Amino acid sequence: MEKFLNLSSIQRNLLVGSIMGDGEITKIYPNSRRKNHSYREHYGVEQENYRMWKASFFPDLFYLTKKSQTMRSKSSPLFTELFPYFYNNYSKQIPLKLLKYCTSPYFLTALYLDDGSLSISKRINHRNKKIYLTPHIYLYLQNYTQKELEVLQQHILNTFHIEFKLSKRRDGHGYVLKGTSTDLTYNFLNLLSPITLTCESMYYKSNWEWRLKQEENKFLEQYPNYQIIASSPNRFKNYTAEEVRKMIFLKKSGVKDIEIAKTLCRSYWSVVYKLRELRSGRLL
């Protein structure tokens, strides 16, 4: 474990989440000249910026080959060291012995941005001309067994206080992890927000306020006279004059956005957008 432990905490968490997600450690076949394994991660052109963002945390390890749309590494003792933790008879498995190192939100960030989804269910009340939108978090990890997912589920609960449920699915091993409440959705996105704020290309997954605006625009084209209502509306209620005054004071005092959000009992993204609004109005 020497090579793995020599990585920074952020790198360890991102790497484990990435290998569990879209990444893979390449195999060494009989008679191969290679002595060590390497890493590769295929992506679609629309996710190139995300892979550039991820690779920036590993400047001496990962690089992109844009022609093949792959983020990859050279052969490295690091991946030879990690291979048996992630593969059993060449089948991918959750590295249960490495989860004790996965205590940073960077782990969940890689796992979610790779294999997660911000799914939105809708309910339309035509009589009252209202559209209700409810966000849900999914981690599509059906390539792992139910038993493995149960261990991961408990690890996420114990470490991050986020309680996912196993949800049945027809493909893979038959189960994914699903958030069952809007509170979980907002808590999960808020937990990741200081990290995902720096990766704009993935806002459709990580930034609820941004995503909500996209959904509003889409529905209002079809239903121009309808009101769009997001679940748990108290999280998006208008700011009071006292909240605005306190926000301006805290920001001018050098308090970080995440701490302002905690002080006001608001979501991180709500505070980010409100501060942007205050700046554009030259109030800050």
Structural summary, described in words:
- There is one protein chain.
- With about 280 residues, this protein is α+β, with helices and mostly antiparallel strands.
- It is built from 12 helices and 11 strands.
- Strand 5 and strand 6 (about 90) form a beta hairpin.
- The longest helix is centred in the middle third of the chain and has 15 residues, at about 145-160.
- The chain starts with a helix and ends with a helix.
- The mean pLDDT is about 95.
Number of helices, counting only DSSP H or I runs of 4 residues or more: 12
**What is the CATH fold-level name of the largest domain?**
Endonuclease I-creI
Count of all domains: 3
Query: Which spans of ≥5 residues are poorly predicted at pLDDT below 50?
Result: none
Q: Supply the helix-strand structural class.
A: alpha+beta
Mean pLDDT: 93
* CATH top-level class of the largest domain: Alpha Beta
Q: What is the CA-CA span between the terminal residues?
A: 49 Å
What would you report as the Rg, rounded to the nearest angstrom? 21 Å
**String of helices and strands:** HHEEHEEHEEHEEHEEHHHEHHH
Net shape: globular
Q: Work out the number of β strands.
A: 11
Beta-strand portion reads 15-25%
Measured as a percent range, the helix fraction is: 40-55%
Give a quick account of the main beta sheet: strands, pairing sense, barrel closure. 5 strands, mixed
CATH architecture name of the largest domain: Roll
Fourth CATH level, the homologous superfamily of the largest domain: Homing endonucleases
Domain Homing endonuclease LAGLIDADG: 13-181
Organism: Rossellomorea aquimaris
Protein name: LAGLIDADG DNA endonuclease family protein
Keywords: Endonuclease, Hydrolase, Nuclease
